[in-house]
Design brief:
Blueprint (H helix, E strand, L loop, with lengths): L3 E6 L2 E6 L10 H14 L6 E6 L10 H6 L3 H20 L5 E5 L2 E3 L2 H7 L2 E5 L3 E3 L13 H9 L1 H10 L3 E2 H7 L4 E3 L4 H13 L3 H13 L5 H15 L3 H11 L2
Parallel strand pairs: 2-3, 3-4, 4-6, 5-7, 6-9
Antiparallel strand pairs: 1-2, 7-8
Length: about 250
């Protein structure tokens, strides 16, 4: 796949952004290839997803060079943002956990990958920034929706309007990432997390993700009703039967 690799091993679909020569920035071909990787991650044999990036930076966002080269820049950028945003939504809607390992720099639409992941392991030297205003552009791929929900409205506005860069430690403090580890350990730690999730109760983990991510758009009453219906289905799964028996046998 052009600009993206995907391999499945041990129940984990590893999606790698693979354009290191341009800091894994995303052009149309890459957006389409990412969609193909999401297709593979939908396979029932996949129980967790891991996203990584090749080279010195995780993702610099949209490929500015491809935007500048387009005959109709407005039409191209509209299509690119819609395509990548749609595939990231599909990733978020998977009924399985998504882990991201990030390093170097996470900028622009690169933040959308982080915000779409359920757990994020960051290398200590990573920097996070919106970057859009630096080239006269606006947020895309769900960043304006997800970022304030992760860090709060005023912090999101500071990042957007002042192009405030965050260190990995600040990103963890603000709620943007889950763990910060030494640079050399980031990918290995994310692999451990993904493997642990893949070994866990698939229905329970996937549905917990769905309930929490969906809670922003339902009423408390709808949430309680959906939780009740879901836990009723969960207790009938083989994983629940096995784990309940093990719990009672302690």
């Amino acid at each position: 796949m052009n600009g993206v690799r995907c391999a499945v091993d041990g129940g984990v679909a590893r999606i790698t952004l693979a354009r290191p020569e341009v800091s894994n920035s995303v052009d149309m071909a890459t957006a389409r290839a990412f969609g193909e990787a999401v297709d593979r991650a939908q396979d029932p044999s996949v129980r967790a997803v891991l996203i990584t990036g090749e080279g010195k930076r995780f993702c610099a966002g949209g490929d500015v060079a491809s935007m500048a080269a387009a005959e109709d820049r407005s039409a191209y950028l509209n299509e690119l943002a819609a395509a990548l945003g749609t595939e990231l939504l599909r990733l978020a809607e998977l009924d399985k956990p998504v882990v991201a390992a990030v390093h170097g720099a996470v900028a622009g639409a690169g933040l959308a990958f982080v915000l779409t992941a359920d757990l994020v392991v960051a290398a200590r030297s990573t920097r996070f920034l919106m970057a859009y205003s630096g080239v006269g552009l606006t947020p895309d791929c769900g960043v304006s929706y997800l970022l304030p929900r992760a860090v709060g409205q005023q912090r999101a506005l500071e990042m957007a309007l002042l192009n405030r860069a965050l260190t990995a430690a600040e990103a963890q403090e603000w709620g943007l990432v889950t763990q910060v580890v030494d640079d050399a350990d980031a990918v290995a730690r994310a692999e451990e997390v993904a493997a642990r999730l893949a070994d866990g109760p698939a229905f329970a983990l996937g549905q917990a993700k769905r309930l929490i991510r969906g809670s922003w758009t339902v009423t408390p009453q709808q949430s309680v009703a959906e939780e009740a219906a879901t836990i009723g289905r969960a207790v009938a799964t083989d994983d629940a039967a096995r784990l309940i028996d093990a719990f009672l046998a302690r």
